[in-house]
Queue: 4 jobs
Job 1
Amino acid sequence: MTTLNIDHVSRWFGNVVAVNDITMTIGPGVTGLLGPNGAGKSTLINMMGGFLAPSTGTVTLDGQPVWRNEQIYKHIGIVPEREAMYDFLTGREFVVANAELHGLGAKAAGRALATVEMEYAQDRKISTYSKGMRQRVKMASALVHDPSLLLLDEPFNGMDPRQRMQLMDLLRRMGAEGRTVLFSSHILEEVEQLASHIEVVVAGRHAASGDFRRIRRLMTDRPHRYLVRSSDDRALAAALIADPSTSGIEVDLAEGALRIQAVDFGRFTALLPRVARDHGIRLLTVSPSDESLESVFSYLVAA
Amino acid sequence: MYDPTVARLTYRALLGRRRALILGALPLLLIIIAVAVRGLVGADDQTAADVLGGLALATMVPIIGVIAGTGAIGPEIDDGSVVYLLSKPLKRPTIIYTKLIVAIGVTMAFSAVPTFIAGLILNGNGQQVAVAYTVAALVASIAYAALFLLLGTVSRHAVVFGLVYALVWEALFGSLVPGARTLSVQQWALAVGHKVTDGDLVTSDVSLTTATVLLIAVTALATWYAGQKLRTLTPTGDE
């Protein structure tokens, strides 16, 4: 069990506050660090990885300080965002060098290359690799010492869909093995697909934490939107608008559906099937039209 | 203190194709000039000392030192790949110390060796001129490598600053302005070279004691400070 503790951490550069009093605990499993570009994700990851001193607050890994503590890297694997990685070496030479720097040998490097399925290209120069291959070799270099914490900065940037899926599978596997995996992203669907837990950072502040659907539900003061199709849309609309859990209904003639805005999530979800049954209306489609991270996100940014 | 893996990575980066060409070009030029001078004026001790002092020690050695010293760490910091060294249970001063050894080795190989060869060509080591300048080049290589390694650690424009130092300070002021000479690696190295030959062809404005103390102090301080800077270095992101 490896837990990364970020305790009241702030970081400023001159007059600019990049990270503002963030407290979070990252435990085993896959955690997504989500935020728009410039939100302070990279600054936060740099502090988590021991490459940047917090201006105030502390970052600890199982109680050990991360800053100015080289020995901590026995437990941390880092996949940086940047591409540069000794392009004049072959993939194997690169991973072997990383293993040696951990006091390990070619065997550990071979194992890591097998984990990321890069053995077939390991003797080619890194300069000839595609973006996805580079990413996998970076992963291998981070996994070579079997770390319990894996930090990845924007790992899916520039990857094609197939490479993205492969890396997601690998990260899921790492999380399922009990490792603490944290990756940053500004792309909502990536986080939605991969992370069981998300931490949202907006403008340097910790905006939300937890399962993203739960975060969405916690924000009960925010309207939830649903698209509903039924056997009698107008009758259903009339019955629903009588209840205070619904704040607005639009009959969308083009779609042949109702667009319902609910203000009380829990009450509305119980109300809808009951009203339909009581009025003898068949519900054909009930879909939350904004349960995506995109909308969660825009609420958080606006808040 | 010395890590063979860090050394291997540094060597391979330094002696990569393009940089090796630049490193090789200057010594080649020196030897070509030596051959030409020998052909034109014949073996003359004073001419040999002028060429080795003005061209080899004052110009070539510091430039090779800039390329090897800053090149041993600067590009890694610039492109961010230094993160693969920093994210290891490896003491940061060990990284600097290892890179220093490599930078010294490369500077010596590409400056002292051609200096000796050029000296032999110029006057067949008459009055120990070749040996004296070779010793001076060896000594200067150590201090230059340490200075420029530090420069590569602290500045993104290390090569520019290094060349300005090498060409303006060492080659121009170091040769022309008396006061600047006390603070010139070239003069310190000459003091050591002078001691070796004990002749009048290789002279320095600085006493051997002062030179030795300053050489050791500059090398040690630069190396220590580079290690400290590396401990608080933040690899840059793309943002």
Job 2
Amino acid sequence: MSIRLTEVRKGFGTKEVLRGFTLGVEDGETAAIVGPSGSGKSVLLKHLVGLLRPDSGAVVVDDHSVPELSRDDLARLRRRIGYVFQFAALFDSMTITENVGMGLRRLPGWDRGRTAARVLECLGLVDLDGLGGRYPAELSGGQRKRAGLARAIAASPKYLLYDEPTTGLDPVTTSVIDGLILRMRDELGVTGLVVTHDMTSAFRVADRITLLHEGKARFTGTPAEVRTARDDVLRGFVEGDPGLYYGLHGGQQNGP
Amino acid sequence: MLDFLSKPLAVAGRGTIGALGSVGRAWTLFAGSAGAMRHVDIWGPHLFPQMARVGVASVPIALFIATFTGIVMSLQASYTLTGTIPLYFVGTLVGKTMILELGPVLTGLTLAGRVGASISAELGTMRVTEQVDALETLAYDPLAYLVVPRVLAGILMFPIVVLLAVAIGIVSGWFTALQLLDMSTPEFVKGLRLFFEPWDVWFAVIKAVSFGAVVTGVGCFYGLQTERGAEGVGKSATQAVVVGSMIILCLDAFWAVILL
């Protein structure tokens, strides 16, 4: 198991966002965590790169217990993880080329020539050829997301974490981004974890889908299993039915 | 029944916990930044650009303020001394006051506004747009990349800006004495040299170094603590200026007690 979260709990002040979340992601698999905005999906993702520490529970990536790593070991692990931020989080004072090359600068053996060649290759992979000289503010939302993806894959990571990769994008651009996520899995063989509230996107890119509900993994299954599941909360979320999701039509069923 | 007591106590308790939390976070930032200094490959390339931003770009405003401070000091000294003490003491007052107090403190307070707010707003924007998180995921230590070069630039450049301000303040005081007070250059210089001690200059430099560390460090601290979007960025910038200015004034008194 490449990524393993076991009984993870995390609170902010008096609000407990994660209440014993458990999930495993296999090598080469792309998993999706779905749930409404504010359910703790991004919080979960940040635990995997050590940006947040759990109050309790285990967070294991590549056989390393992330919360227990020293700063240097965490930096080494992060070089094997690419993180695509919800709003791209590009460095706005740098060009796209500088952004994409940022993670390579500190890697041993990466001189200017090799870095420049890799940046061009990554920009090509996300169809941003010729836009490397622009600043983030000069790109559209979809282009910024793709630049963020190019930056995340530059160091050839083993894992890619996507935080709401299609939020705020039009359906066509969403489809392009989904295609890129599949391409990363199929061509680069990376293990992916996508958090999203976009079910169309989740069905398209994920091998397995987990619903995060009230801080726990409510349901995990393949896209086909999710489509046929009888769990009211899951059905409510997939179908966008608040009555089912919030249990306004009567009792809830637990499990598929 | 004891509501009248419990409410103020609760407020005081929350305030104390908040203040202790800030001290703890500030200590964590300080210790982390000291540890991050070993990453010279990260902060090294950013030191000179930061020195230009923190120091060189601050020279015009610092000199503008020093010029007018020198003029006013000269005129007020003359107003106070005329008819009681020889006029060459104008040079003494202008020199001593500019070197020991007004040069460092006015420059420090000015740069707390210019540099402290700028650093806080920049880092705050990076924080709320997840650029700081992005740095971490790319295996950069944000303290080495963002804090160390800015604080070092403050420590290195504040003394230079302060000494320039002191020099310009004295020159403008001298020029005012010549043009408006009917004093001669030898008279002004006589007063200037009367109680001059080389240690005074070192005193100004020590204060400037501490002010540089405080202004940039406080700016970084509040910038990295920023939460909740544009409003949070504005709040952080304000806090950086207010707290930076307060610490400068406290340090000013501290150094006077310790070193004079």
Job 3
Amino acid sequence: MKLNSSRLKTLRNAVLSRLSFIRSNSYISSGIGLLIGVVLFGVIGILVIPYHPVRMGSVPRDLAPSFEHPLGTDSLGRDLLAQVCFGSLMSLQVGFLAGIIGFVAALAVAFIGGYRGGNLDGGLTVLTEIFLTTPSLVILILLASIVRKVEILLMALIIAIFAWAWPAKTIRAQVLSLRERGFVYLARLSGLSSIEIIVKHMIPNILPFLGSYFAVVVNAATLSAVGLEVIGLGPRHTTTLGIIFYWAMMHSAVTRGLIWWWLPPCIILFLLFLSLFLIQRGLDEIANPRLRGE
Amino acid sequence: MGLPYVIRRTMIYVLSLFGGVLINFVLPRLVPGNPLQAKLLELQRMGVRVAGQEFVDKYMKIFGLNEPLHIQFVNYITSLIQGNLGISITRFPTEVRELIAKHFPWTLGLLYVAHFTVFLVGVILGALVGWKSKSKLRKGVFMIFIILSQMQYYTVAMTLLYVFAFLIPVFPIGAAYTYGATYGNILQYAWDIMWHATLPALSLVLVGIGGWSLAARGLIVSVKGEDYLILAKAKGLSENRRFLFYALKNTLLPQITDLAITMGFVATGSILVEVIFGYPGMGYLLYRAVTALDYPLIQGISIMYVFGVTTAGFVVDLMYPLIDPRVRYE
């Protein structure tokens, strides 16, 4: 028991020292703080607000903000604060799910192609370029309009189809330069397998860079998700920030002056993107110290 | 310009086009059963008045949907090359290509103006901010760029619509021109169109400027330490001259390649902007097609977008070595 707790302590210290850069970089700490803030806002909102965020007609329609409904209610009889809280969590979920799927795919393409080289790399690079030059939202609209009944996970999968290309291209460039570095040669000479070299030696070396690209992917995925949702191709039986926009537009909330309907999701979305940008920017500074001098 | 690069780029272009066409061909056929029939039934259940069996028969015959798949694919490509995009379901018997031709000019005008305004204004503003990055005012402007770059087309569009069409109604709430208006002369007509396009274009411009200026600022900052700028200073050249002809000129060129990549973003971003403003371009048409489940129309529009964006990117990439003599593709 005692041994375990001391081991736990050293492990904790090791993790903390690894993560110390979060506190030392003001971009990262404020970005993570903001992100946690958005999550807390959603979670607390869900726990505190007694209204159902999705079911229509659960409250009176078209109410202006009041004490019972701080953001009013929409034309379908739903509490807007409940929708915004629940919707921001759902949007985060779609963005992160799609981001993780796309990012893992990007890692695989970048490392397999970049490390191995040869025809496989050539083929993967061409594939990446093809995905980069295609207008993704249009294809996503086509896909989503044919699939129709999307749920959160399927939505994330569809978005991930295009989310991997840009990070795959940049990570591959890093892998190419990393491959020629001394410690990788040494690792290869000492008989480590390719996978061991990639996982144990190459990835830890570009961790901040990878982290910053993960933030980029989540950002892009959230952007596509909201884009699809705004035109009514979002997941069913739930609500997200984009779906709130969709209903707001359906009922001309902007030109009817119902500012409490569309502005709060705009603000949350902006904070979400800002937090991801700050995290990315901070990790960029760590990966590329020259940026700090600006 | 080296040949292999040209061949490679052409290959990517052709494959992108092919991929787009393939997706357009395969997806509707993955829907179990006859997608047209299913779609018609669904619409009829919803109480929408559509041309029924007559439409299905005509469509099946035109596109030979009873033939084996590979023959269908050949037929599909042939008709695409002939510019035949099929028939709209909801606006039967109007051809998809007719609808696109009617809406395309609006999008093209909007995109053309917005994209190039953004490029020029964004790059020059960003360069100015980067050139004297210590100045307080420019640091403030830099913060505004960061904020703008994290805004989305739809949020900016909704905010502009609220402020300038609802709160202070100086701009119209939608459409591309005043319906039923008579114009004394062509100038009045042009003015009306510009008046309607201002807010949609401004949404595209504001969001775009953030990203472009951040990139331009980064480039200028990295160029500032270059030897040729130190030499120019040592030669006693004026600050304006060093900025315009030494720094800006050298950072402007690399950004032209980004025009190709961002073309796709702006094109798709304009879809949402058009929807919010009810601007009758391709994006709005696509939105209407999606809400009405008009598959032939959705397909036609997405083919047009894929074609437009990939072709624009292809042309810019091929032209780039001609513009920037420092670039030589092997």
Job 4
Amino acid sequence: MFAALVAPSIPAAAIIDVARAFTPRFEQVGPLVLLDAGGLSRLFGSPQELGTHLSEALAKHGTGGTAPRVAIAATQTAAALLALGRPGLTVIAPGQEAKALVPLSISVLDRYEKLKKLRAGDNRHLEILTKWGIRTLGAFAAVAGPEVFERLGDHGLQWQALARGVDARPLVPWVDEVPFEAALELEWPIEGLEPLSFLLARLFEPLSERLEQADRGATVIHTSLRLTTKRVHARTLPLPSPMRDPKTLRTLVLLDLETHPPDAPIDTVRVFIEPTPGRVTQWTLLERAQPAPEQVSTLIARLGALMGDKHVGSPRLQDTWKPGAFAMDEFRVVSEEFRVKDGALAPEVLTVHSGLATVNSALRRFRFPIPTRVQVQEGRPIRVATDRHGCSSGAIVQSAGPWRTSGEWWQEGRAWDRDEWDVAMADGTIYRLVVERGVGQWFLEGVVD
Amino acid sequence: MPVRATVEALLRERKLDRTLTSAIPERLGEDAVSPLDVEALDRGLAGGLPRGQVSEVVGPASSGRTGLVWAALAAATRRGETVALIDTFDRFDPPTAAACGIVLPRLLWVRGQAVSKTAVAIDPAWLPGVRAVHGPGTFVERVIDRAIKSLNLVVQSGVCTLVAIDLIDVPAQALRRLPAATWFRIERAIEGSDTAVVILAAQSVARSSGGRSIQMGVGRQESGVGDPGITWKGDHDRSRRLGGVRTTTAIGGARWSGTQQVAVHTRFVHAG
């Protein structure tokens, strides 16, 4: 037995409060609330009496306007359609649903479907049925199933089942959103991250279990540590993809705290998780399996703790002519969209000669250019002298240049104006030599290798 | 052969039987190697860099050693694989790498710390407790230590199928001070996995039994002896451009008899 409540003049939250007062099993479908009324007869009497109780409870929240509608029937679809299509209280005996639905307008079915969002896209069934002269649910229910299927397809049959009061799916009960939060107050303050690891494990295990039950994954973890100094050390850790493995979550938070440690012993540990729907992954046999986001996140966090956040990631080119310019992005496992199609780089990058292997040269850039003394003759560098260990000094055998570049002169402190030379030393080393034109200072910028 | 059987039994008893080829079956097929997509080199390497093994690329400056490792990284990223570069002294140049065909979003770049005489230029997180720039227990050793730790983390995670570590500018004494177990640990971590590790260095450092040794610039030493093989384009001073470097590469392996020589042309690429 199901009850349906519709009350346009009452706020949705108030209708839900009324439903919760009668049963914990109810579902909200837009402005309509469906109750599982099975087993309520012991508390509220017959279906008629239950309907009266529901109407009275709704009336208490009413502010005038349209009177609340209550319908009780053996199926949720019938109850919903009756509540949408008939005013006041309607109670239908079991087995009489189809009969009770007969006089209802076909437009009720359209309204109900829109509420439940059963089907995406434009609904033209109402228009078609109206053109056919079908005005009521009874008339539509009377049409033979194969005829409906031939003309309206699967959706037409689903519509007809609804018109007969048949349920398409079971009731999905409302679940109260309980925040994914856990806290531990400590009798004795703790120092260091090792004991904190055990506490975090205790906090994350039940939270992960709840996330799994709700088919949710953590997308952001907020950790707040109340310290003995009465200050709160708060950290927010955004995750690259939803995850709920307690060990991974604990490791990520610990590594984050290792990089940004609290400056005093900890009194209280509180963890709050922002949930998001779980990740659905469809693997294919035709492409290489990519590493799991949990693996990648843990690796990046470990590397970040060891090397520093700015030292780990993927390089990204910038839209500038400035030599060596780049930006660092967070490293993520990218999809196949980034895969370079065969031949796309063939002419420039991939050169194959039989017998002779051709590879492209790399530039090993000195991130801090090495100041050097250069002897110039007729405008060309002829000798390099540097005291840097591992760098060649001496006569330049051959050189090519200058390649002049300048830019960003419109931004203070970022302008560059320089000449580049490629120079070969006697020992075969090829350097990129740069002279800053404004100051005349020479630098070794890198080695061609 | 009773002697051989006895030796094998003793090795097995001491759990040293992985030195025998019977312990882990030889990987077969195209998935056994990570090709460089350079025909002559792949032929010389018997397909490419072997997966589950540590290989090394060594040679003097400007011999094309870095270009060869970049070629391997570029080929792997073009195949849709995820690769990593442990860049000990932060020498990687992304614009040139992109011009060489490396798909940058697929590259995990672990940047070490470039050495500078100006302390303010160095990330403060790398400095506490460091008193001198060179020598044991110094800044340079800290940089090398973190690079090795990073390599361990990356290979143990199994996230990347090709991992390169750049040790070219590491002083030879510092490399010699690294415990031998360092490379043995890496070898065990990737054994039987899809990951190929390649060490890029000036001199030979380490290689696993199934790995390859690629010696670039054979016949040319740091002393400058031998023809560097640098080619130039253009007849006039003003129009001259660097063309590339022609060198000879020797490829060897523990399970191979002798070495194979391949002529390599390192073509100059300018990112601009």
